[in-house]
Amino acid sequence: MTRTAARQDASVAPFGLSLVFFNVLLEQLGLPVPALPTLIVAGALAADGRLSAVGVCALAIGACVIGDSVWYVAGRIYGGRVMRLLCRISLTPDICVSQTQSSFERWGANALVVAKFVPGLGLIAPPLAGATRMRYLRFAGNDALGSALWVGAALLAGTVLRPQILHLLPWLSSVGGTALGLGALLLIVYLAFKWWERRRFYAALEMARISVADLHAQMSGGQSPVIVDVRSPTAQGIDLRRIPGALHVPLQEVERHMGELPRDSEIVLYCNCPNEASAAQAARVLLNHGFHRVRPLGGGLDAWVAAGFSLEEILPSGVAGTDRGAVVAAVVVESTPASEGANAVARQAASGAANPPVSSA
């Protein structure tokens, strides 16, 4: 009787397909509930005949596409505000200043195929696709393909590790609540570690800022510093506005173009990330290479807009590529004690005379 019961227990999965679906869905929506362990165990159970392999694949892929579609729609409706929200709440806040946007710009829709394998990119790629107005069918197709590869890799790992996993399952069942408590403890340790990383990330960016009021006063008084917009081309394309006369040098290109910046002038860098993360990182790069008068703009472009100061429109064709030489030449002119008329001519040369100032109101 006991052996019969044991054989029946061995043929029953410790969890069902609904847990697989909701675990994957919640992770794709941004909750810190890793789905990869669940998928690996599900792969072992499917290989052992305790779960339907087709059901696991279909539900996991469906959960991925549903969760990513929610972020896609949010990005399409709210644009860059969604990315800034993700930076504020994410345990990895550097997603707004790391290689993720660069990867999306380099690979386009194909980034969705590998997004779930790249830390940070899997979270920001769906809303970024929506904010950049990618067609939904194209998004869904690439996202489904990427989800299938990710789910398939996890299930394959579970199949390979099936003997070891099946050997551990009875022990986990016997300890019951202890195993659940251990899992909760590991989750708490993981969250604490990510929180510590977040604090360390922002601590490394602590430095003096310049307020938007002080920057505006300098510009109005004819003592304008060199202003650098370090947003990525994608981020700038989502919000086609800039502070008047700003030079566009994306964060990833600052080190390559620092030789073109005047060392005897004050340099103010801005972005639209929480805590001015991109601008602070760019400022740190310049400070480490001998620049001394470098400050991020406190509050970034959002604070400038909120203060009601004037803005310049950016033509969409100017976002992807700019005449770097003309722009830097304009910056050098502005950094000398020239008249406002000369500054205006320089700014027109930098922008191709195509970006007239507009009110933020």
Please provide a written account of the structure.
The protein is 62% helix and 6% strand. It is mainly α and 361 residues long. The chain folds into 2 domains: 13-203, no CATH class; 212-358, Rhodanese-like domain (Oxidized Rhodanese, domain 1, 3-Layer(aba) Sandwich), CATH 3.40.250.10. It has a 4-stranded parallel sheet. The model is unreliable at 1-9 and 318-361 (pLDDT under 50).
| Overall domain count | 2
The major pleated sheet works out as: 4 strands, parallel
Mean pLDDT score: 78
Count of DSSP-assigned helices: 19
The separation of the N and C termini measures 79 Å
How much of the sequence lies in strands comes to 5-15%
What is the CA-based Rg, rounded? 26 Å
Please provide the count of β strands. Answer: 7
Q: Which bin fits the share of residues in helices?
A: 55-70%
Judged by helices, strands and strand pairing, the structural class is mainly alpha
Order of helices and strands: HHHHHHHHHHHHEHEEHEHEHEHHHE
Poorly predicted spans: 1-9, 318-361
Please tell me what the overall shape is: elongated
Strand order of the largest sheet: 3-1-4-5
Offer a quick outline of the entry.
The protein is mainly alpha-helical and 361 residues long.
Question: What layout of secondary structure does this protein have?
Answer:
Elements: H1 2-10, H2 17-28, H3 36-47, H4 53-78, H5 80-89, H6 100-107, H7 111-114, H8 121-131, H9 136-160, H10 162-175, H11 177-203, H12 212-220, E1 226-229, H13 233-238, E2 241-242, E3 247-248, H14 254-257, E4 267-270, H15 277-288, E5 294-296, H16 300-306, E6 311-313, H17 317-320, H18 324-334, H19 340-351, E7 357-358
Parallel strand pairs: 1-3, 1-4, 4-5
Antiparallel strand pairs: 2-6, 6-7
Helix pairs in contact: 2-3, 2-4, 3-9, 3-10, 4-5, 4-8, 4-9, 5-8, 6-8, 18-19
